[in-house]
Design the sequence.
C-alpha cells in the first residue's frame, strides 16, 4: 500500500474510533488495547471463549495484584473487535483499572458487549485502529501496548508488517496471541509480520479452549516490567 493509502486508512480508523477524551489526565503504568479477532473463522462458541477469557483475566487476583504493584498502581484498558477492512469497533471504552472493583467492572463490560462483525481478516487495519485508540486516551501511560489475538493470517487490507513498523516507530509495542487451531503455522506469521516493539512477545495456543489461560499469562507479562523480550512462548491446550 502507498503512503497516501496508509494515511487514508489511519484517518478512517481515527474517525471510526472518535470519542470524547477524559477531562483529567492521570499517570498510569500502561495503556493496553485488547484487539480481538471476530472474523468469520471465529464461531459463536470461540467468540464467547475469547471474551470470557479477557473478563476472567481482570477478575484474577494475580492480575489485580500485578496492576497495583506497578510504579503508578494503575493501567488503562480498552477492547476493540476487528475483522474486515471497515470493521474495527470499540466494544469497551478506555477504563482505568487500579483495584478489584474496577477490574470487575471492566470484566462486566466485556461480558455485556455483543459481537460486532464476522468478515475477512484485515490485521493491518486492526493495527491501525488499535494505534488510533491511543489518540483518545486522556491519561499519560508509561507504556503503550497493543495486544492482538487471532486465528488466521491477513487476507485483505494493508501489509500488517508495514503498519506494525509505523506503530513501533511511535514507541508502541505490539504483542500477539496466535490461536493455532486452523493454521498451525500462524505463530511464525505473527512473529514475522505482527509482533514488534520494545520487549514485544508472542504467545501461541493450540485452540480456543486455552485462550483464558493464555490471556491471563499474557496480561501478567504485559503489566510486569520485562527486561528481556520473550519470543513465541508456547502454551499447549490442556
Sequence:
Amino acid at each position: 500500500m502507498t503512503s497516501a493509502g496508509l494515511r487514508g486508512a489511519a484517518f478512517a480508523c481515527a474517525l471510526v474510533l472518535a470519542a470524547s477524551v477524559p477531562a483529567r489526565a492521570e499517570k498510569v503504568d500502561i495503556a493496553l488495547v485488547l484487539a480481538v479477532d471476530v472474523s468469520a473463522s471465529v464461531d459463536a462458541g470461540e467468540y464467547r471463549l475469547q471474551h470470557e477469557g479477557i473478563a476472567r483475566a481482570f477478575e484474577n487476583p494475580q492480575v489485580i495484584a500485578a496492576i497495583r504493584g506497578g510504579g503508578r498502581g494503575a493501567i488503562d484498558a480498552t477492547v476493540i473487535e476487528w475483522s474486515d477492512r471497515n470493521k474495527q469497533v470499540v466494544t469497551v471504552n478506555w477504563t482505568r483499572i487500579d483495584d478489584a472493583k474496577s477490574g470487575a467492572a471492566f470484566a462486566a463490560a466485556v461480558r455485556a458487549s455483543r459481537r460486532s462483525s464476522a468478515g475477512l481478516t484485515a490485521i493491518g487495519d486492526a493495527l491501525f485502529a488499535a494505534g488510533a485508540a491511543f489518540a483518545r486516551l486522556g491519561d499519560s501511560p508509561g507504556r503503550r501496548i497493543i495486544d492482538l489475538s487471532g486465528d488466521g493470517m491477513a487476507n485483505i487490507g494493508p501489509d500488517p508488517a508495514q503498519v506494525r513498523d509505523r506503530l513501533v516507530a511511535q514507541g508502541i509495542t505490539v504483542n500477539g496471541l496466535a490461536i493455532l487451531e486452523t493454521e498451525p503455522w500462524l505463530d511464525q506469521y505473527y512473529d514475522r509480520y505482527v509482533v514488534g516493539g520494545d520487549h514485544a512477545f508472542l504467545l501461541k495456543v493450540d485452540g480456543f479452549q486455552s485462550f483464558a489461560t493464555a490471556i491471563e499469562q499474557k496480561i501478567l507479562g504485559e503489566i510486569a516490567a520485562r527486561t528481556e523480550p520473550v519470543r513465541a512462548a508456547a502454551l499447549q491446550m490442556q
About this structure: Residues 14-23, 226-238 have pLDDT under 50 and may be disordered.
